[in-house]
Specification:
Blueprint: H1 12-15, H2 17-39, H3 51-84, H4 102-117, H5 121-150, H6 152-160
Length: about 160
Amino acid sequence: MDKIEPKKVENREEEGMINFILSHSYFIFFLAVILGALLDPLIDKEIFSNLLYTHSGFVMLIVGSLLVYWAQKTSLTYKQRVSKDDTGSFFEFGPYKYMRNPTHLGLFILTLGFSLMINSLFGVILNIIAYIITRVYFLKKEEELLEDKHGQVYADYKKKVKNWL
């Protein structure tokens, strides 16, 4: 089997591309909630008015927030460690042991829960659409960039850890 060699990043623009992709994919979820809340007055029916939806939405909001926090904390710890010690395998820490995109999954759960809490049918629908857009475009592009940047280390990680989105 051919080894994939890491690509040397020559300039900061290429290095910042992953952050650019991530920020836009996060924005899609935010936009889904906002547009959902703005479009909901178009229908005069409360779909998720049952207290079960409100409580489920609240639990999803908490679980999604905790997952995002855990993923971000793990990423920060990794960045601090890498600046001191340049080791090869660094992807399998925190929630990254179990899924490749914990922040995206957390954002999806969080925004879906918030949409349920505010009784937003369009919010739920647009969050599902945001999930599909994120999955098809942003996560695919992010993984290509990570494989280019980290080579065989990331390719091996992709084989071991599932993508839950």
